Amino acid sequence: GEDVEQSLFLSVREGDSSVINCTYTDSSSTYLYWYKQEPGAGLQLLTYIFSNMDMKQDQRLTVLLNKKDKHLSLRIADTQTGDSAIYFCAERPMGGGFKTIFGAGTRLFVKA
Amino acid sequence: EAQVTQNPRYLITVTGKKLTVTCSQNMNHEYMSWYRQDPGLGLRQIYYSMNVEVTDKGDVPEGYKVSRKEKRNFPLILESPSPNQTSLYFCATSAGGRPTDTQYFGPGTRLTVL
Q1: Which of A19, A55, A62, B97 is 20 to 30 A away from residue A72, measured at CA?
Q2: C-alpha–C-alpha distance, residues A92 and A99, integer Å
Q3: Nearest CB to A104 within list B31, B41, B58
């Protein structure tokens, strides 16, 4: 079945780059998403990529997709303390109806 | 301002006492969904609705009911809550059900069932 896995914690220094990794198992064409959850708030969509793309860049965010290894990463350049949050990887397989599968989330700590 | 509101934000209740968590949106969105978030498990979909009077089960529907009598509201009903339903619940909405339709999440409802 489908599964999305992420490491649970990441700690970086302010100004460094953060790389949050995710692996997924679905073998069909799929949309892959990154969400951010700040304390006490709901999830906010950061970006998404379709599985026929290799990379997508949006300001400080770069998404890389290795379709062969089913590996997705989110790179945050010049990480700031305001980037401290939980980041969720999610997958929505084509042909899977309205089902979105979320990873457990990676908690990013940014040290000043 | 585009909003997804949930009420209550926090609730402590006892086993077996029926409760309803409301979700309301002002964006005229067709698609609405309920998730629960548990540590180490991420978000799991409970129910979703494609439009008024159209609902379907997600991954973990047991113990929950929903209704969609109006487009803007999508309440989550726990007829007989149990401690394993202690969780953080999120309502989400999107204009449609397409993968490129952004899902907007409410602020969450933290439920504790004793």
Answers
A1: B97
A2: 6
A3: B41
Q: What is the pLDDT of residues A15-31, one digit of tens each?
A: 999 999 999 987 677 89
Q: Which chain B residue has its CA at the smallest distance from A31's CA?
A: B99
> Which residue in B31, B40, B103 is closest to A45 by CB distance?
B103
Smallest CA–CA separation between B62 and chain A, in Å? 17
Query: Which distant-in-sequence residues (6+ apart) come within 8 Å of A82 by Cβ?
Result: none
Q: For residue range A62-86, what is the model confidence (pLDDT) as tens digits? A: 999 998 899 999 999 999 999 999 9
Element (H, E) at B56: strand B54-57
* 3-state per-residue secondary structure call for A21-37: EEEECCCCCEEEEEEEE
User: Do you find a cis peptide bond into B8, omega within 30 degrees of 0?
Assistant: yes
